[in-house]
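Sample intake sheet
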Amino acid sequence: APGHRDFIKNMITGTSQADCAVLIVAAGTGEFEAGISKNGQTREHALLAFTLGVKQLIVGVNKMDSTEPPFSESRFEEIKKEVSSYIKKIGYNPLTVAFVPISGWHGDNMLEPSTKMPWFKGWNVERKEGKADGKCLIEALDAILPPARPTDKALRLPLQDVYKIGGIGTVPV
């Protein structure tokens, strides 16, 4: 979800049906600090995802090209440490979360490993179903495990609203 309060309702609607959350964190100086601050959007989005039952999480540390120096390993590690600490407090196990340094602007570590971050040896996650590892964001997405679905149960559909229309009746949406 874009980091703006106006979009939180949309984020909640989408997240309630998600198998995985991808938390994109800005690595730029000041941007990360604003997002992870007490009332920051990074905290709010991570908490909402967990509260709405999304058990799998990927963290993309974006804008690595705008760190000082560009593509800074120390900045990535600082962000990883702080985000790990926060997500652990809300209920995620950081060992099951892939942290990937990326630059969406340049496409670094999105679909294939970046030559600009030779220090990044890849991400790895440990879970009861087994380990997974990779170097790019797309590999982290591909490693998501689909949750067990109660296919033997009756169909359930989420409703967003209900309208009572005269002459027609009740219309669920």
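Comment: The radius of gyration is 19 Å. The first strand starts at residue 20 and ends at 26.
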